[in-house]
Predict the structure.
Amino acid sequence: MPDDAPETPFRRSGDPVTLAVVVPTLNAEAAIGRALQALAAPTPGIDLDVLVVDGGSTDATLDEAQRYGARILSAEGGRGPQLAAGAEAALGDWLLFLHADTTLPPNWPEIVRDFAARPDAARKAGYFRFVLDDPASPAARRLERAVAWRCRRLGLPYGDQGLLISRARYLEAGGFPAVPLMEDVALVRRIGRSDLVELPGAAITSAARYRRDGYLRRSLRNLCCLALYLLGVPPAAIVRLYG
């Protein structure tokens, strides 16, 4: 942070950012290596704690996590309880929640430092731009534009875009609810659209589920899940539709 940058309650001039990255996993061996490799790069100005919170993987997910030196926790009941457990055990004033199949951009430490240095950082939460690892697919580009519109107009970034937030603001917003699905929507709605900030970088997410199910079919399924949740259907009842 430049010497003349505004100080915040969470970062004084010359202090490092203390950051915990919380990654929920369940049989994620195919993707988690890329996510953790991006986090393993040097992080000047950041004291980093990486937590993998596993929900009962039966593949090599935990072997990959150990290979990259992540702390490993266990939590059952779905992604919401996993994220909540990770936040409770995390070390740091800042939290970054990241899906196991999402890879941060190479300059993510700079993005985090700049966000933490904002004078209004104590009230805000940041999310990355959504990009799929399917560069030749027109359907992927259409979906990316739809997600950008959803974030801009509705204030609804999803968990596969990451969420950067101070611990104090996270606790003030009530944290992640103990639900198996829609935990990300629940939290960002409590934060509020006016306090959500798009970060200047893209998080690359695996397109495997879209290629498997079809872009249109999977997108419509996700939209139906969101609509049901907003209409008050319990997340536990939506899980089977989500797949």
Notes: Confidence is low (pLDDT under 50) at residues 1-13. Residues 6 and 243 are 45 Å apart (CA to CA). The domain at 17-208 is CATH 3.90.550.10 (Spore Coat Polysaccharide Biosynthesis Protein SpsA; Chain A).
